[in-house]
Design brief:
The protein has ten helices and 13 strands. The protein is α/β, with parallel strands linked by helices. The longest helix has 19 residues, at about 250-270. It binds adenosine monophosphate (AMP). The site of adenosine monophosphate (AMP) has 17 residues, from strand 2, helix 1 and helix 8. Adenosine monophosphate binds near residues 26, 123, 230, 232 and 233.
Length: about 300
């Protein structure tokens, strides 16, 4: 089955202690879309400006990503720049230039409206809600967010969260949203906002699921060297949704393995700038790391 992914389609300028790379292909929907593409069909909803390089469109196409929902608008592509400290868990946003996202109002192609799996990747919650309004009886809807929306669009975000099957956020955002210092307490409080599945990402420490069959502690794949962690969270949720859409049977039967696949794809993402590494991997490499992860976590 297909996954519809809406989110940012961006140009990212990234500085790490070792290197600097301007105008890479980035954005939450790009990272999530590339990650999901290894498992099944992906439909991308986003917007780019007239400065968006052709080679990035070709990259999406090479991965088989459907671009009917990608609008090309007059103006500049969303541009984000960030800088990492020596400890790559710490990042500073240097600039966010919305460009065409300032006026972006997606109208979904008719064929997209019946997509069974929907990933509302990180973008303004009102926009995520607007896309969800156009979907007809989706089977499973997940959304990701970021601290910015908790600060500037909390009422919109809370309205959206009520409508989700799964809400995915990181540990800092879970603390900010609930006021809870303890993550397990935060999980309970977030269920109270609506979603049946809550997933808290903890970067290189893995992720935690709370759902109808209880909790699952999903490990991160251990990487000795991180080149650029930008988009790891998006790759995690993209890989997870891609796997879930391809699996036959119930969500509960597959969600743990789906998270493990998400962890693995996120690990590849961290090994290169932007999507440079992720766009070149194969399903066999993903399966190889999944087996290793399984061995590491079994006891
Ligand atoms: P992550 O490293 O998982 O937090 O995701 C980083 C990605 O989020 C980058 O590729 C950015 O282009 C994108 N991004 C940064 N700020 C925003 C924003 N305000 N809205 C949507 N996407 C954003």
């Amino acid at each position: 089955m297909s996954v519809l992914i809406v989110g940012s389609t961006a140009l990212d300028s990234i500085k790490t202690p070792k290197a600097e790379n301007p105008r890479l292909l980035g954005g939450s929907a790009s990272h999530a879309g590339v990650a999901a593409s290894f498992f099944g069909p992906v439909r991308l909803v986003g917007a780019v400006g007239d400065d968006f390089p052709k080679r990035y469109v070709q990259l999406y196409e090479r991965l088989g990503i459907d671009l009917e929902g990608l609008q090309r608008l007059p103006g500049k592509t969303f541009h984000w720049s960030g800088e990492y400290e020596l400890n790559m868990n710490n990042r500073r946003t240097l600039a966010t230039e919305l460009g065409v996202f300032e006026t972006f109002n997606p109208t979904l192609p008719a064929a997209y409206q019946t997509t069974p799996f929907v990933l509302l990747a990180n973008i303004a919650p009102a926009l995520q809600g607007h896309v969800l309004d156009q979907m007809r009886r989706p089977r499973f809807v997940a959304a990701d967010t970021m601290d910015l929306w908790l600060n500037v669009a909390l009422p919109d975000l809370l309205k959206l969260v009520k409508r989700l099957d799964a809400f995915v956020l990181n540990d800092g955002e879970a603390h900010q949203l609930t006021g809870a210092d303890n993550l397990f307490d935060a999980l309970k409080k977030i269920h109270g906002l609506g979603p049946k599945y809550v997933i808290i990402k903890q970067g290189s420490h893995g992720s935690i699921l709370s759902g109808p069959r209880g909790m699952f502690l999903c490990p991160a794949y251990p990487l000795p060297k991180v080149v650029d962690p930008t988009g790891a969270g998006d790759s995690f949720v993209g890989g997870m949704m891609g796997y879930l859409a391809a699996a036959k049977g119930s969500i509960d039967d597959h969600i743990r393995r789906a998270m493990a696949y998400g962890s693995v794809v996120a690990s590849f993402c961290c090994e290169g700038f932007g999507v440079q590494r992720t766009a070149k991997i194969t399903r066999a490499q993903i399966d190889g790391r999944l087996k290793e992860l399984e061995r590491l976590a079994r006891f």
